[in-house]
Amino acid sequence: MVRLGNIGGKALRRVQEQAGVNAVIHNHPEGIVGKPVYLPQFRVALVHNPNNSPKYAQFRVPLSFNKFDLRSYLWNLYGVGVLGIRSYVQAQGITRITRDGKGYGPWRRPKSQKRMTVELKEPFAWPEAPKDMAPFEHESWKKAELWQKEQQDKENPKRNSGEEPDHKLRAAYKEQAEALRENKETWRPTWKALGLEPHEAAKAGRIPPATQPAWYARQRKTGPK
Hints:
4-stranded antiparallel beta sheet, two-stranded antiparallel sheet, 6 strands, Ribosomal_uL23/eL15/eS24_sf, structural constituent of ribosome
């Protein structure tokens, strides 16, 4: 609710003239003619659900909303008649609080959302999306979004390794799969590819040097102390 003292006199008079109100507000220093104006502090959002028929509409409402509140809201503000309302509370999934673009942090469950499906007296057809986006400055919006993303990448150059796939590893797997499919290479188990023959390993007590991979050799030289 907005108090009358917080509203400019001219703006309030304009609202009251449009509403056709002529009652005098008592105990007001300016003696403004009209009645108190109550502005809602909640938000009701119409959700586009293409699976719904034109006789039904879905809204996202505050958790404190009930069916009578939504029916009164639609009728008094938009003149929309309602035949029935179904409501449910949708719990949100557990996520992490990310900091500095990192994918880790304390676990939390976001606030649940309440949705209501309304059966309308008159059908409502959702308008089609405009094909020409030039009047809405869509290109400028896309450029601004791309610029914001570039700035975020500059500020947080070290991303979480789980956010983007390893393209080099994927390309190596693809190349190896194609070679096996074309019979250019013969598949061998990993222990054979690394030279881990059971009898040789038992005799030498280690991997033969000729078959040691580079990463294994480096790990042996700079192993844990």
